[in-house]
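Practice problem 4.
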């Protein structure tokens, strides 16, 4: 395989956004088994669609680009889904309970 077979043409926005790089890989490779968890295979299309829907939910809640989202969950398939959804719009995940506890509470609208 040529050395440049995996090179990406990216803008500065996508070169620093893991979710958009993963989306580009999905577009190039198509739907395939991409995660095995406790005997269950998850397809890239399923994971991509769930991340896209969660991204829409976060936007609907008013979590803007640059916003912080606390992620506290056990190791499960929802972890990469959550991170991809958070990264899609340039949000910042926080996965440390001590850091999350120091954040000011979000006021409801």
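Answer key:
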């Amino acid at each position: 395989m040529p050395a440049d077979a995996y090179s990406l043409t990216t803008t500065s926005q996508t070169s620093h956004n893991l979710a958009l790089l993963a989306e580009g890989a999905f577009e190039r490779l198509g739907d395939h088994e991409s995660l095995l968890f406790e005997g269950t295979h998850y397809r890239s299309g399923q994971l991509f669609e769930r991340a896209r829907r969660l991204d829409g939910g976060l936007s609907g809640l008013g979590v803007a680009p640059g916003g912080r989202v606390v992620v506290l969950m056990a190791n499960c398939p929802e972890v990469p889904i959550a991170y991809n959804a958070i990264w899609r719009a340039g949000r910042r995940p926080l996965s440390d309970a001590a850091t999350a506890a120091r954040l000011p509470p979000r006021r409801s609208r």
